[in-house]
Amino acid sequence: MKTLIVIAGGECSRMGNFLKDEFKKIPKHLLPLPILKMTLVESVVYNGLLHFDQVIIEANYQNGIYFESIFDGNKKVVVEIDDVHSGPLGPVARRIITQETVYACAGDMYCEFSWDEFEKFHNKHDRPVSILVAKSIAVPKGARFIIGNERELSWERVAYTNIHDLINIGAYIIDRNQGVLDIFDSLNKLNKIIKHKEDEFFDLVIKKKLAYAYDPKIIGFNINVPLSYIGLFNYIKNKK
Fold first, then answer.
1. Exposure pattern of 17-37 as b/e (b: 16+ CB <10 Å)?
2. Which whole number is the average pLDDT over 117-130?
3. For residue range 189-229, what is the model confidence (pLDDT) as tens digits?
4. What is the residue-wise DSSP string for 54-67?
5. Three-state DSSP class for 47?
6. Phi first, then psi: what are they for 174, rounded to 5°?
7. Which residues are CB-contacts of 34 (< 8 A; sequence separation ≥ 6)?
8. How many angstroms separate the CA atoms of 236 and 27, rounded?
9. pLDDT reported for residue 203
10. 43-60 residue pLDDT tens
11. Which residues fall within 8 angstroms of residue 233, CB to CB, at 6 or more apart?
12. C-alpha distances out from residue 95 to 34, 57, 73, 155, Å
């Protein structure tokens, strides 16, 4: 059974005031996409079900209650409570020890990409990590990926991304590999509660040349600031 892990916990620290003022503090994964008649997390899950036999949503207790209600009756969608809270890639770190390949994505992203094409890209190269990247709207305090002529990958933090930058959208295919296991082991040893953040992971996999980036040549949205959600809302509205 091929499974997708949707990571939908987190504290929404950069979205907190916006969610409180505009949406009565709902989890950001439940932000509405009215034109599509679904929420953000539903768009992620239903896109995943086009390719995977099962989708497991990793959530904190509060979010989990909402998700169980939304997907009640769908036997292909399982909600699991993540009581470890070690960071966005924590569920991947725990599964990669025993799984040959982990497919994972954030529950607060939007990108009309194909998991089939993403997996084909992953299977054609010889590195254990594939990261979905795409152009998006300009946002403050971001990071951009740079794909070299030989597909070599680098990244840099910037004060402001622009519409031409490739950013992390939040989807990954990661094979069990000694280099990957060593990275997660080193992150586990960090003297901090939130150990498995994307930034630290990207720093290491890029330094060790363990990753390639997949660019589907379409726009994507990583909903980590209010501006991203507003941009997504307008994008869908104008497209439809």
1. ebbeeeeeebbbbbbebeeee
2. 98
3. 887 777 888 999 999 999 999 999 999 999 999 998 899 99
4. EEEEEE-HHHHHHH
5. helix
6. -130, 120
7. none
8. 20
9. 96
10. 999 999 999 999 999 998
11. 33
12. 34, 14, 26, 26
Which position has the token pair 């503090």? 25
Q: Do residues 200 and 92 touch, judged by C-beta distance below 8 A?
A: no
Mean pLDDT of the chain: 92
Residues recorded for the chain: 240
The CA distance from 86 to 196, in Å, is 6
Q: For residue 131, which of 178, 185, 198, 81 has the smallest C-alpha distance?
A: 198
- In three-state secondary structure terms, 110 is strand
Encode pLDDT of 201-210 as tens digits. 999 999 999 9
Question: Which helix H or strand E contains 90, and what residues bound it?
Answer: helix 90-95
Please determine, for residue 71, whether its predicted confidence score (pLDDT) is greater than 70: yes
Separation between Cα atoms, residue 126 and residue 230, nearest integer Å = 38
| Residue 218, token pair as written in the block | 């379409």
pLDDT interval class at 239 (50, 70, 90): confident
- Compute the chain's Rg from CA coordinates: 17
The closest alpha carbon to 72, from 96, 36, 52, 45, belongs to 45
pTM above 0.90, yes or no: yes
CA distances from 219 to 33, 51, 229, 239 (A): 16, 20, 13, 12
Closest CA to 224 of 4, 44, 11: 11
- d(CA 56, CA 80) in angstroms, rounded, equals 7
Residue identified by tokens 């209650």 is 65
